[in-house]
């Protein structure tokens, strides 16, 4: 009975660790995919601004729409729920929608107006700032021992570790910039 009980406890703990590791891996994947999405958005917006061909611009703008939706999904999968990321979610939604509208306009054979070019350039600059901010956050999580699961401690009314608090503050600052 003791051996059976010990084995059951060991199996339960092993499964719990495996589940925690899988959750941590999904958080890491979501962050690095978000970072990749923002890098792609930066590149695609730059291509849209530099392109002389409306066909290429249409492709770039529709790709921005797709990447912005992927970035929103990855941001939603991050364990930063305690940080209000509504501005970031809204920014990514509006960025994608705006670029899609511009692509549709180009597909109908209409030229972009000066105000639309200016808005696109401004969105490109904001996207660059977000990407740079995410790279700063990445430097903080690159230190040994950081775990995204530490954000879960907020739901248990515990304080964040200094490193986790620094990363939460980084996300808050990014959201405030928008």
Task: Please give a quick description of this structure.
With 178 residues, this protein is mainly α. It has helices at residues 2-50, 54-76, 86-107, 114-141, 162-177.
How far apart, in Å, are the first and last alpha carbons? 60 Å
Flag low-confidence runs. none
Elements, N to C (H/E): HHHHH
* Fraction in beta strands: under 5%
In total, the number of strands is: 0
Gross morphology: elongated
Rg result:
21 Å
Count of helical stretches: 5
Mean pLDDT: 87
Structural class: mainly alpha
What would you note in describing this structure?
- The structure is a single chain.
- It is built from five helices and no strands.
- It has helices at residues 2-50, 54-76, 86-107, 114-141, 162-177.
- 78% of the residues lie in helices and 0% in strands.
- The longest helix has 49 residues, at 2-50.
- It is mostly helical.
């Amino acid at each position: 009975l003791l051996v059976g009980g010990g084995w059951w406890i060991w199996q339960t703990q092993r499964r719990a660790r495996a589940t925690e590791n899988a959750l941590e891996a999904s958080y890491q994947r979501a962050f690095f995919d978000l970072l990749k999405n923002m890098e792609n958005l930066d590149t695609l917006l730059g291509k849209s601004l530099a392109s002389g061909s409306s066909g290429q611009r249409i492709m770039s703008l529709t790709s921005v729409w797709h990447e912005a939706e992927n970035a929103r999904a990855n941001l939603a999968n991050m364990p930063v729920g305690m940080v209000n990321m509504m501005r970031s979610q809204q920014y990514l939604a509006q960025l994608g929608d705006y670029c899609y509208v511009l692509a549709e306009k180009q597909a109908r054979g209409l030229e972009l107006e000066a105000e639309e070019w200016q808005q696109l350039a401004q969105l490109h600059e904001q996207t660059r700032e977000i990407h740079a901010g995410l790279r700063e956050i990445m430097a903080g999580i690159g230190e040994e021992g950081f775990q995204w699961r530490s954000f879960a401690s907020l739901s248990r009314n515990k304080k964040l570790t200094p490193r986790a608090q620094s990363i939460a503050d980084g996300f808050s600052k990014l959201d405030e910039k928008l």
